[in-house]
TrEMBL record:
Family according to the record: Belongs to the IAA-amido conjugating enzyme family.
Any GO CC annotation of this UniProt entry: cytoplasm
Residues of the GH3 middle domain: 374-454
GO molecular function, one term: acid-amino acid ligase activity
GH3 C-terminal domain span: 470-585
Taxonomic source organism: Glycine soja
Name of protein: Indole-3-acetic acid-amido synthetase GH3.10 isoform A
Keywords: Ligase
InterPro entries for this protein: GH3 (IPR004993), GH3_C (IPR055378), GH3_M (IPR055377)
Highest taxon above the source species: Eukaryota
Length: 611
């Protein structure tokens, strides 16, 4: 056993000694120490999880006959991976439901679970329960503190400055068994750790808790913008959970800036804000500021003339960077955010899920397209299923990957793709996350991961298999034609594999801002159809076993209707991700009701005639 044993949890929670840069050095030192011993740390972490939760009902079936408390750490790790099966959320759902209904026996954890998080539901169309414990809030504080230390090396900020945070809580409710349920972000924003984070990272949010937890995202967004501009000279950086929230906020600002400026001038608050708690909290902060209002009005009139290009540095002149999750399904919004940012650095936030945080961005100067995430080995026990791409459709896997047996973090290799598997302190054991990642490099002994795609977000009709990443590339090709031929802008998109009639075909839905001629949209449709490079798709299109791609153009505001439906079902704006591929009946009804024009591809017509 190594003589030096890195401490798993405490340093990041207590490192801050009040000496500014020294504390940044301490937390990075702690992480560098961990990175030298990642395999050992992971083995010890798994032992800690199993020793804490030994005897719970879920594990008894496989570990009940073993005295794991007497076992060597490496032997226990080997036993665990050989006898406890891989699982999905479906395997945990019956236990989660019993916990929600008030069953207090140790089902998943020995410690009682009193709080449940709701996953976003945008991937599979329904929300899932995930346990939320003090450990969940602590690891969130840890990763934010660690990430802030790495960012401060590249983009130092003024101590005591402010952060414009477009963050939102949803309403929490009680289950039949009395457990509190809400989104993970809602629980975190209400926790003591959220307050501690502001002190540890030396930056304070512009908006009070009453705005964050207001429950109506439109009212909260207005107040975020108002208070962010009121403190505009103090704002050091701008952030949101996902860049979607930020782009939505700035799009809203384009419409409401005059009203916001009037409120700043007079020290008043728009009648849009109905919440009495939110009104009081905001009005307690602002006071009449006619000079600031005039300055902002002049800037906004200038920005209107250039289509709001450079909005962020113009209105927040001391902002050092923009910080948010920008990978995966968020990448399509980068173009719009760069338009607003005009060269201000975009820093991609950390990699995680409702189940667990996974990796930290230790290279914040990299553009979002190139970002990697160094796995933090104290958050969960990580396993990785090696994935190999296969051109033929596999009946077993349901996608274009062949799988090998899972391996521990210490055995993964650069250039290989994997699916992430988690064992957590909160009662998930060998749970498949569904994320495909690629190992880009190593940070000492810790892998740095590229997020590739979600396994389940796949378009398929026949032998074809197209991932979310494939779809994004195709839409980029189509929107390039749109941008060249008009001043119109693609606002958002999603897709659907329609197999209601034979042959089945892909449907891509576009919401566009601006006027576009039909011949241009037809060309966009053709370009997308022929841009799918998957061999199964190309062959199927040539033989007409997949029909022509369909482009549906949506009326303005369609994706806001989808967002409103999502939030009406209890989720928070902070969680929202537009599903890039959907078979959700409610979403499809909104999309089809709001379709104003349809185009069918003619890209493969000559091929069909030659058959």
């Amino acid at each position: 056993m190594p003589q030096h044993q890195p401490t798993l949890m405490e340093p990041v929670l207590s490192y801050n000694n009040g000496n500014g840069n020294n504390s940044d050095y301490d937390v990075m030192n702690w992480f560098e120490d961990l990175s030298q011993n990642a395999g050992f740390v992971q083995t010890q972490l798994l032992c800690q999880i199993l020793e804490q939760n030994y005897g719970v009902e879920y594990l008894k079936k496989w570990l009940g006959s073993y005295n794991i408390l007497e076992m060597d750490a490496c032997a226990l790790e080997s036993l665990f991976s050989s006898v406890v099966p891989l699982a999905s959320h479906a395997d945990f759902e019956p236990f989660m439901q019993r916990i929600a209904d008030g069953d207090t026996t140790p089902l998943l954890t020995q410690q009682p679970i009193t709080t449940l998080s709701l996953s976003s539901g945008t991937t599979e169309g329904r929300q899932k329960f995930v346990p939320f414990t003090r450990h969940s809030a602590q690891t969130t504080l840890q990763i934010f503190t660690l990430a802030a230390a790495y960012r401060s090396r590249v983009y130092p900020i003024r101590e005591g400055g402010r952060v414009l945070e477009f963050i939102y809580s949803s309403n929490r409710f009680k289950t039949k068994g009395g457990l509190t349920v809400g989104t993970a972000t809602t629980h975190y924003y209400a926790s003591e750790e959220f307050k501690i984070k502001q002190h540890k990272t030396k930056s304070f949010t512009c908006s009070p808790q009453e705005v964050i937890s207001g429950g109506d995202y439109k009212q909260s967004t207005y107040c975020h913008l108002l208070l962010g501009l009121y403190f505009s000279d103090q704002v050091e950086f701008i952030t949101s959970a996902f860049i979607y929230s930020m782009v939505q906020a700035f799009t809203t600002f384009e419409e409401l800036w005059r009203e916001i400026c009037n409120d700043i001038r007079d020290g008043t608050l728009s009648s849009r804000i109905k919440s009495s708690k939110m009104r009081k909290a905001a009005l307690d902060i602002i006071s009449p500021s006619p000079n600031l209002a005039s300055k902002l009005e002049d800037s906004c009139k200038e920005l209107e003339g250039v289509d709001w290009f450079g909005l962020i540095p113009k209105l927040w002149p001391n902002a050092k960077y923009v910080y948010s999750i920008m990978t995966g399904s968020m990448q399509p919004y980068l173009k719009k955010l760069r338009h607003y940012a005009n060269g201000l650095p975009l820093v991609s936030a950390e990699y995680g899920s409702t189940e667990s945080w996974i990796g930290v961005n230790v290279d914040p100067s990299l553009p979002p397209e190139d970002v990697t995430f160094a796995v933090v080995p104290t958050f969960s026990y990580f396993e990785f299923i090696p994935l190999h791409r296969h051109e033929k459709k596999l009946s077993s896997g349901g996608d274009d990957f062949m799988e090998d047996k899972p391996i521990p973090l210490s055995q993964i290799k650069v250039g290989q793709e994997y699916e992430v598997v988690l064992t957590t302190f909160t009662g998930l054991y060998r749970c498949r996350l569904g994320d495909v990642v690629e190992v880009a490099s190593f940070h000492n002994g810790i892998p740095k991961l590229n997020f590739v795609c979600r396994r389940k977000l796949i378009l398929t009709v026949n032998i074809d298999k197209n991932t979310e990443k494939d779809l994004q590339l195709v839409v980029e090709r189509g929107s390039h034609i749109l941008n060249k031929a008009s001043r119109a802008e693609l606002i958002d998109f999603t897709s659907y594999a329609d197999v209601s009639n034979q042959p089945g075909h892909y449907v891509i839905y576009w919401e566009i801002k601006g006027e576009v001629e039909d011949n241009v949209l037809g060309a966009c449709c053709n370009e997308m159809d022929k841009s799918f490079a998957d061999h199964g798709y190309v062959v199927s299109r040539k033989t007409n076993s997949i029909g022509p791609l369909e482009l549906c153009v949506l009326e303005s505001g369609t994706f806001k209707k989808i967002l409103d439906n999502f939030i009406a079902n209890g989720a928070a704006l902070s969680q929202f991700k537009t599903p890039r591929c959907t078979n959700n009946h409610v979403i499809l009804k909104i999309l089809n009701t709001c379709t104003t024009k349809k185009f069918r591809s003619t890209a493969y017509n000559n091929c069909s005639n030659e058959q």
